[in-house]
Write a structure and sequence with these properties.
The protein is 15% helix and 24% strand. By secondary structure, the protein is α+β, with helices and mostly antiparallel strands. Strand 3 (34-37) and strand 4 (45-49) form a beta hairpin.
Length: 74
């Protein structure tokens, strides 16, 4: 059992989610790309490695994702 501070969602196979797009913060031509999906905001913001589309996705809550994006845009 997890405490209330350890609440999370897990997606084992990220290809089961839809509407993936390359993150604007990915490293262009190097092949190191993150993909995000905006289609699941009610659950969280899923993020996956574009080189492993059937691998896991990390789900960020909307406030955590916004804080991350804000930090990157500094």
């Amino acid at each position: 059992m997890h405490s209330s501070r350890e609440q999370y969602a897990r997606v084992i196979d990220a290809s089961s989610l839809t509407a993936w797009r390359k993150s604007t913060y990915s490293a262009g031509e190097s092949g190191d790309c993150l993909e995000v999906s905006d289609a699941h905001r009610e659950v969280g913001i899923p993020v996956r490695d574009s080189k492993n589309p059937h691998g896991p996705a990390v789900l960020f809550g909307a406030p955590a994702w916004q804080a991350f994006v804000t930090y990157l845009s500094r």
